[in-house]
Amino acid sequence: MGLCSLAGGATLSKAAARWAMTAPTRSVPVALSAEALLHQWARQSEAPAGAAVVAASEIAARRRGGVEWRTSDAMAVSVLARPDSLDPEAMDVGWAAVSLAAAEALEACEKPDTTTCSTADRDARTHQTQDARTHQTQDARTHQTQDARTHQTQGDSLEACEKPGAWMCLWPDQVLREPPDVCEVAVGFACTLGPGRVELAALTVRVGPLASVSERETVTSMLLQHLRKQASGLDDPTSLLDAYRKRCATLGQPVELRMLPHGTMRGLAEDIDHTGRLVLASPTGLTERIMVASLNEARLLT
């Protein structure tokens, strides 16, 4: 993934900041699924808002629609939300929240500590240069050429290290990097309804492969921070949806939607409305609002 260091400076809501200080986190080496363990904790022990489960591996992880998640060396983070007033009609806001959290967290992981990165690069390049000079057999011009190439390589390496990735969302549940990354990301939103409101919800992000301990620690920390931030914003989703729209590459594009239980729709993705639904403009001029629950798959036509 090319993670350089933990990045600070993210702005948290008061609730998210409080959760970061007080909300418990349970880390397990293996789980049936992270959100199943979180829901069990919430039902049986009244886990508080912001409580989280971190699973190093899962036995039965699923994507939206029940599709199996089989990425190797993957980990999952699931955070509990207990919104006070989220209308069940607006539950699709949860998909925007978890997708946005994943994109923000993974992009934050790539923000470099330039001192750390550049020092490591310089040390490696310096050793290579010294070794080359020890075994030098060519003339001065050749050495100058090698030195120039070494400095060019250093510059290219530092420039690449200092550029954060551009993580974007595709409605409703895809999180991708541009340019593409070797890591796969899957997000999930599962909620329990109470009288006239969403009683509790699990916002889950899976990322893999993450082979090194340092990468896992960095990704876990950033996901906990950003999932708690977005989970705390479900009661007032206006700013959450504004931020999601800015990252949503679906908007303004022609799309094809495969619907449930069958059928296909095509049109222009115009907007994400206040309930988290996709506003689709058909070629005939009609506008429809698409719920996540009615969707099998969304595909860009460009």
Task: Write up what this structure looks like.
The protein is an alpha+beta fold. It is 36% helix and 25% strand. It contains 7 helices and 12 strands. The longest helix has 22 residues.
What key phrases describe this protein's structure?
36% helix, BirA Bifunctional Protein, domain 2, 5-stranded mixed beta sheet, 7 helices, SH3 type barrels, single chain
- CATH topology tier name of the largest domain: BirA Bifunctional Protein, domain 2
Strand content: 25-35%
Catalogue the unreliable spans: 2-10, 114-164
Please give the largest β-sheet: 5 strands, mixed
Mean pLDDT: 82
The CATH superfamily label of the largest domain reads Bira Bifunctional Protein, Domain 2
Give a brief outline of the structure.
With 302 residues, this protein is α+β, with helices and mostly antiparallel strands. It has 3 domains: 14-111 and 164-247, BirA Bifunctional Protein, domain 2, CATH 3.30.930.10; 114-161; 254-300, SH3 type barrels (Roll), CATH 2.30.30.
How is this fold's topology laid out?
Blueprint: H1 14-22, E1 25-28, H2 34-45, E2 52-55, E3 75-81, H3 93-109, H4 114-134, H5 140-161, E4 166-170, E5 174-178, E6 184-194, E7 197-208, H6 213-231, H7 238-247, E8 254-259, E9 264-272, E10 278-281, E11 287-290, E12 295-300
Parallel strand pairs: 1-2
Antiparallel strand pairs: 2-3, 3-7, 4-5, 6-7, 8-9, 8-12, 9-10, 10-11
Helix pairs in contact: 1-6, 3-6, 3-7, 4-5
